[in-house]
Amino acid sequence: MLRALVMTAHDVDLKIINAKVPFVSEIEPNNLVECGIAINDGLIEQVAKPDNLPKSDEVFDAKGMVVLPGLVDVHAHLRGLNLSYKEDFDTGTMAAVAGGITTVLDMQNTDPPTINPENLKAKKESAKSKIVADVGFFSSIPDDLINDLPKMIDLGIAGFKIYPLHPYTKYDIYDRDTVLEAFLKLSGCKLPICIHAIDVSSKSIKSKNKGALEQDFGSDEITNFLNKHPPELEASAVKFYSEIAISAGVHIHISHLSSLKSLEIFKLGLKHIRDKKNGLFKITADVSPHHLFLTKEELKRRGAFAKMVEPLRAKEDNDILWHALKCGTLNIVASEHAPHPKQEKEKSFSEAPSGVPNLETMLPMMYTEVLEGRLTYKRLIEVCSENPAKVFNLEKKGMIREGYFADLVVISNTNEKINPDNFFSKAKHSPFDGRIIKAKPYATFLRGVKVYEDGEILAKPGCGNIIRPFH
Ligand code: DOR
Q1: Counting atoms of ligand 1 from 1, which one is nearest the CA of 307?
Q2: Which of 16, 250, 318, 389 is the S-S candidate for 397 at Cβ 3.0 to 4.6 Å?
Q3: String of b and e for 108-132 (b: at least 16 CB within 10 Å)?
Q4: For 346-381, how does the pLDDT look when each residue is reduced to its tens digit (9 = 90+)?
Q5: Which residue's CA is the nearest one to ligand 1's atom 3?
Q6: Backbone φ and ψ of 17, nearest 5°
Q7: What is the b/e burial string over 19-37, where b = at least 16 CB atoms within 10 angstroms of the residue's CB?
Q8: Is residue 149 helix, strand or coil?
Q9: 168-199 tens-digit pLDDT
Q10: Domains (ranges, CATH) in the chain?
C-alpha cells in the first residue's frame, strides 16, 4: 500500500526530456527554456528542469527540439461517409497529427450533411473507431431547431455553421428575418455560430467589380470565378450577420476572413463589444494560411490547385491580414483543410471543386515565419493553439500548462520543399507545393500518447476522442 502511494506520488507515465519549451511573455515573446515535461494520465503534470522531474519508465528525448502545444484547428473538412473517397476520418486525422494538429473541428458539408441529431450520431459513429486526433463536430442550424437544439447540445456539438452558398437547411438562406429567428432561438446556448461570409443576394456588386478584374486576368474562367466572389460580397455578408447577431445577442465566428474590406467591418463588431453596447454579442474570426501566404496571382500559376472559396485575394489583403493577426485584431489561424482528389482538381477550372488541403502545411508554413523572425513564438502559440481552444471552449487544450492535456508537438528544423506526395491526406496536391519550409513536426503526442514520429503514424485507429465544448 505504502509502495503504491509512493509510486503514484513520484512516478509518471512519460517524461519528455531535453526539450525547449516556450515560456513567453509580452516582454520575452521568444523565450525558450530548456526543460522537461512530466505526463501522467494524459495530462501535463509538471514542466520543470530535469532534476526536478518525477521518475518515469518511459522517456522521450526531444534532443533539444522545441515543444509546442498541439495545434487546435477549428475549420477542417474531414469528410468521411459518402465522401470518404475525398478524405476519411482516419486519413484526415493522420494528416492532422503529422501536421502537429491534435484537435480538429470538422465541418458540416458532408454527405449526408450534419444537419440534425440523427446525421450527427451517424457521423460520430463512423468517426470514433478511425480518428487518431481529437475531433469535434459542427452542424448546420437544424430545421427543427427548437426540438433538435437540446439533442445536439447533448451530443456535444462544437457549434453551428451557416453556409449560404450551399444551403443545407432553411437557416442557410440569406434572409434577415430567417437568420434573426435562428439567432434568437440560439441566443443563450453559448455555442458559436460560424459564418461563411458570402452575400448571395447581391448582383450589383459583381458587375461593379468586373472591369477591374478583367484588366488583371483577362476575360476567362478564372476572372469569372473571382468575379463571382469579390471581397465586397464577403464584406457585405460580415455586415449582414454582425447586425443580426448584435440584435439577437449571439456569438458569431467569421470563418476564413480573407479581405481588407471584411476586416474593416469586422473591426466595427469588435468596437461594438469594446463599447459594451450589448453584453451577449460576440464576434471572432479566423484566417486561413492560403489567405496569408498566397495572392490571386497564384491562380494564374496553379489554376484549380489554388481554387477555393473565399478565393485568394490581392497582396494588400495578405499584408493587412498579417498585420491584424500580429496586433491581435484577428486571433485564430485555421486550416480550412478542404480535400479533393487530384483528378478532380485536374478538370477544367470551372468544373474543378473549390478547396485545398492544409492540415500538413499549416504549422510548417507558420513556424517558418517564426524562424525567419516575422512572427513570435508567443503569437504562433496564441493563434494556432491557445485562442482557438478558448474561443470554442475546449477545456484543457491549447497550452503547455500543468493540468492541461498533454497534446504536444515536437518540432525539428529542416530546409526542404513541401511535397504533397508525402501527405497522409488523400488530397495529394497543394497550392504550397514546392515552397521551402524551415521546420516540420518531428513527433506529436495526443494526451500523452505518441501518435506520430518521424514520418510515421504510430497511433491506433480510434485513439482520438470525440470532444465536446465545455459550457
Ligand atoms: O473552397 C471551399 N471548399 N470552400 C468551402 O466553403 C467549402 C470547401 C469544401 O468543402 O471543399
Answers
A1: 1
A2: 389
A3: bbbeebbbbbebbeebbebbeebbb
A4: 999 999 999 999 999 999 999 999 999 999 999 999
A5: 355
A6: -115, 170
A7: bbbbebeeeebeeeeebbb
A8: helix
A9: 999 999 999 999 999 999 998 989 999 999 99
A10: 12-64 (2.30.40.10), 71-396 (3.20.20.140)
